[in-house]
Design a protein that fits this description.
Immunoglobulin-like; 4-stranded mixed β-sheet; 27% helix; elongated; copper; signal; metal ion binding; Phytocyanin_dom; Cupredoxin
């Protein structure tokens, strides 16, 4: 009888993890394109381990390079590249608590503002401080207010159902 209990506890933990993971569309409605203010976009959200970034763009017009900080600052994508993405619908899971730097390496796009960095925290940590400003030139005014592009991987009911199931299993 102990084995099914362990299985259901594991299953409940998987659902609970999914209930708090978020999917962030980079740039919201403007997506990964020139003209978006990615510095402001990245400061609107708190990023946690398990979240996913989605870069949507026209394949061939842009790309996504995950880079080191020096490459981010210089916008020179010839060195310091950790990963490249070019599908037009790139999904990157934030699997570690650390800083991530992203640029578009198409000629002039990075210097034109297609870059940002984020500081990913552990999923269970609380981030009560406002994000620190990025040290780069002041960005152009933000686009008109838009709806939130962050969605939960599972709806709120999944969290509560998983929590109740977990409690019931503890009683077995």
């Amino acid at each position: 009888m102990g084995e099914p209990k362990i299985f259901f506890m594991f299953l409940a933990m998987v659902f609970l993890k999914g209930a708090v993971s978020k999917v962030h569309t980079v740039g919201d409605e403007l997506q990964w394109n020139t003209g978006a203010n990615f510095g402001s976009w990245s400061q609107k959200y708190n990023f946690s381990v398990g979240d996913t970034l989605v870069f949507k763009y026209v394949k061939g017009q842009h790309n996504v390079y995950e880079v080191i900080e020096a490459t981010y600052r210089s916008c020179n994508g010839s060195t310091g590249i950790l990963a490249t993405y070019e599908s037009g619908n790139d999904q990157i899971e934030l699997d570690q608590a650390r800083k991530y730097w992203f640029i578009c390496n198409v000629g002039g796009h990075c210097l034109g503002g297609m870059r940002f960095f984020i500081d990913v925290k552990e999923a269970n940590s609380t981030n009560l401080r406002p994000p620190t400003p990025q040290s780069e030139p002041p960005p152009p005014p933000p686009p008109p207010a838009s709806s939130c592009a962050t969605i939960y991987v599972f709806d709120g009911w999944s969290f509560w159902i998983s929590l109740i199931a977990f409690g019931v299993l503890l009683q077995l």
